[in-house]
Specification:
Strand order of the largest sheet: 1-2
Oligomer: single chain
Number of strands: 4
Number of helices: 28
Structural class: mainly alpha
Radius of gyration: 26 Å
Distance between the termini: 42 Å
């Protein structure tokens, strides 16, 4: 440790402990090295990925106890030394606004330095404008809108939870049954219920919310509000950027490229490919990023021109883009002229001229995603017999698993369940989430060597199967590392399901003094709880057809949290027989109620209607965990 180490005040130490506890979700007293970047972010000390990897390498080399995990004391030591070195100037921002960054927070009574967080003023303005437009006609948001982008009304507007719930449904329609949202006589308790519903629903669509709670949102903490809103907005912007939703994307195939490679691209990569497709048609220079390469607005001018030209027949557009703005020498003025043309296509969202000329990659990505969603300007083409053939998207089960992984903060983000798991890294992180120790020294990390890259990935997959079989004691008969490495659907799903199941019931083992929780334990608890509360419903198994009505779930929620259910919303049918539409209505209501009372539920309404036993099990297990926690409090 350096001699000139900066002193950490008691207040700062308390903040670090709070940050550490939010990342240490299993209360083990340790965080893993791959969680270190998120821990720094939570401690208001964001570092680029390469810098975190350097820190991890240095830490592992000098790890005296060789446990390859980071304790709170070790984290404080790392933090203290970093703060004393080259990052000291940027760690504490001044209260004054500087280059679009605002800082907030109080000063410590024991130190000349205070605990402060920073946020981007540009992002706040962009999100406010987007939300104002998206929810302008929503009757439940009229007490909040329109918000003023030049003040802090955004941070106050989220405190009752209504706006967040509505934005989640904007991004992923029907995620929340809006009958469950509290909109009248909003007491603190009812607002907290809305925020819990929003957080659990955001988690269900793949947002990482492990570092945020309802109290943070009610307090309107700017960095947390903006971080959550960006995740929610991005889910919506990226939802249709896949070939199953827009088969015109097949046009983006390059010579000799296989379709499965195109299918494996992330939304960001697909957008970059889409922009360059149009730029090539315009006969102009392509781009490699949404920061440096777009600062002069040239790519945007040509993109807008191509959209207007090639989208006319498909989208009824008759806009002629004025390209004279390319002659403007001042880049800010040129960007303004470009955005005026974008406005003619109703696509002037997310960026200001300064956001373009400064190369704000996040907001420019959002700008381009919105352009694609509004005017893709792609024609269906005939390539290798693909024309006219419908390309299946991911199944509901695959999407559920993918959202669950992303909500836990795995890195890299999982866009495609099979191709993004083929190097084993995400699977190994999931093992850590179920308290299976991973020896990270044995794991190969990117960048992989040009020669032998697949062998390195295969070694990781073999290690993952070894952990699953020998440590977690999963049933992995016939599953080898090569199956994961090749992206075998049936084998990957078999392992991922067991990981999700173990994660779901882990809390039950913690509450039950560590004993293994089998399906029969959950089943018995459900029926006993229903009986004790004089409910008529019972289930014989997680395949019981009565689950298709969702009545056992709704009765169980009422048993756990009396007064939560509005019985006039529940359909019971004649002689217990429900129409399909009534079953779906009950299922939507049940899932949202479960999230509202605090259960982290990933099951979908269709899982109840169709009685998908796997997801039904996770739903009842989460309700059991929530119920037992309430009893133990």
């Amino acid at each position: 440790m350096a001699d000139n180490v900066t002193h950490i005040s008691r207040e700062d130490l308390d903040d670090l402990r709070e940050a550490f506890n939010k990342i240490d979700i299993d209360n083990s007293g340790y965080v893993s090295d791959f969680e270190l970047q998120e821990l720094f972010r939570e401690a208001s000390f964001s570092l680029p990925g390469y810098r975190v990897r350097e820190i991890i390498e240095t830490f592992i080399a000098g790890d005296t106890n060789k446990d390859e995990k980071i304790s709170f004391e070790e984290f404080v030591s790392i933090y203290q030394e970093l703060k004393s070195k080259e990052f000291s100037e940027t760690f504490r921002k001044s209260i004054a606004r500087r280059d679009g960054i605002r800082s907030f927070g109080g000063m410590s009574g024991n130190s000349s330095e205070g605990t402060q967080h920073s946020y981007s003023d540009e992002e706040k303005v962009a999100f406010v404008n987007w939300i104002n437009k998206a929810l302008a006609k929503d009757p439940d948001c009229q007490h909040l809108l329109p918000m003023d982008p030049d003040d802090d009304s955004l941070f106050k507007s989220v405190c009752d939870g209504i706006l967040l719930c509505k934005m989640i449904n904007q991004s992923q329609p029907d995620t929340i049954d809006e009958r469950v949202i509290n909109t009248k006589k909003l007491t603190t308790f009812k607002m907290t219920e809305n925020l819990v519903l929003a957080l659990n629903s955001a988690s269900a669509i793949g947002c990482m919310v492990v570092s945020i709670d309802a109290h943070d949102l009610m307090a309107g903490k700017p960095h947390l509000v903006l971080g959550l809103l960006w995740q929610i907005i991005k889910v919506g912007l990226f939802a249709d950027i896949e070939i199953s939703k827009n088969e015109g994307l097949i046009s983006l195939l390059t010579d000799g490229e296989r379709l499965d490679h195109l299918l494996s691209l992330s939304p960001e990569e697909m957008l970059l490919r889409w922009v360059n497709y149009h730029l090539e048609k315009a006969g102009t220079k392509t781009i490699s990023n949404f920061s440096e390469d777009i600062k002069d607005s040239r790519a945007y001018f040509h993109l807008l021109d191509q959209i207007a030209l090639h989208g006319e027949n498909d989208y009824g557009m008759s806009v002629k883009i004025d390209m004279s703005g390319l002659n403007e020498h001042d880049l800010d003025d040129r960007a303004e002229l470009m955005l005026q043309q974008a406005a003619r296509l109703d696509c002037r969202q997310f960026v200001s001229p300064h956001d373009v000329t400064s190369g704000n990659s996040k907001l420019n990505l959002a700008f381009v995603a919105n352009l694609f969603n509004m005017h893709p300007a792609l024609q269906r083409v005939h390539i290798n017999g693909v024309e006219g053939a419908h390309i299946e998207g991911e199944s509901k089960e695959e999407k559920t698993f993918r959202n669950w992984m992303n909500s836990l903060g795995v890195s890299p983000y999982v866009n495609h369940l099979y191709s993004d798991l083929c190097d084993g890294l995400v699977i190994l992180q999931l093992f850590e989430k179920i308290n299976v120790n991973v020896t990270w020294k044995k794991v190969n990390h990117p960048p992989y060597p040009v020669l032998g890259a697949n062998m390195k990935k295969l070694e990781n997959c073999n290690y993952a199967v070894e952990l699953g079989r020998d440590v977690a004691h999963f049933s992995l008969v016939g599953i080898g590392g090569e199956n994961l490495n090749e992206g075998s659907q049936i084998h990957t799903l078999a392992l991922v399901w067991q990981l999700m199941r173990r994660y779901t019931v882990r809390v039950l083992s913690d509450l039950g003094d560590g004993e293994k929780v089998g399906d029969h334990v959950i089943l018995n608890w459900v029926n006993t709880t229903l009986s004790q509360k004089n409910k008529d419903t019972q289930i014989g198994s997680f395949k019981d057809n009565c689950i298709s009505t969702s009545l056992p779930v709704i009765d169980l929620i009422d048993a756990i949290a009396p007064g939560t259910v509005r019985w006039d919303m529940v359909k019971r049918g004649e002689r217990g027989v429900l129409k399909d539409a009534d079953k779906l209505n009950n299922a939507k209501y049940a899932i949202s109620l479960a999230r509202k009372i605090g259960a982290r539920v990933y099951a979908l309404p269709d899982d109840l209607v169709e009685v998908n036993p796997k997801m039904v099990l996770t739903l009842f297990a989460n309700l059991m965990g929530h119920g037992l926690k309430k009893v133990n409090q």
